[in-house]
Amino acid sequence: AQQPGTPLSDQEYHQFFKFLQITIQASTACHLRELYGCMNSLVQKLDKYENHGVIPSGPICSELPGNPFFRNFCTFSLYRCLTKKYFLKV
Fold first, then answer.
1. Is residue 17 part of a domain?
2. What InterPro entries does this protein's entry cite (predicted)?
3. pLDDT given for residue 36 in this prediction
């Protein structure tokens, strides 16, 4: 364990910036979704990439307490963006 107030080790910095970069990318994708909507071709490419080439149709169920059901993947993705739970899965 490191002493409080000391800098991160090289390995800890690598993990810190790796997570930060991923979060920034997810935030950017959410910003595109909010600006252009789910029908935008770039947003659709990102959705397909996230889902192995196919955007799920129909209702999306999740293990979220209180929000287990979303009418489609777009609604689910918007929820993740608004709550900043970028890596939430169904």
1. yes
2. Proacrosin-bd
3. 95
Interhelix angle 73-83/10-36, rounded to 10 degrees, is 130
Tokens, residue 89: 């899965």
- What residues form DSSP beta bridges with 61? 69
Structural domain that includes position 64: 10-83
pTM of structure: 0.71
Longest dimension (CA), the chain: 51
The CA-atom distances, in angstroms, between 14 and each of 10, 11, 18, 22, 33 are 6, 5, 6, 12, 29
- The tally of domains found in the chain comes to 1
Encode pLDDT of 4-42 as tens digits: 777 788 888 888 888 888 888 889 999 999 999 999 999
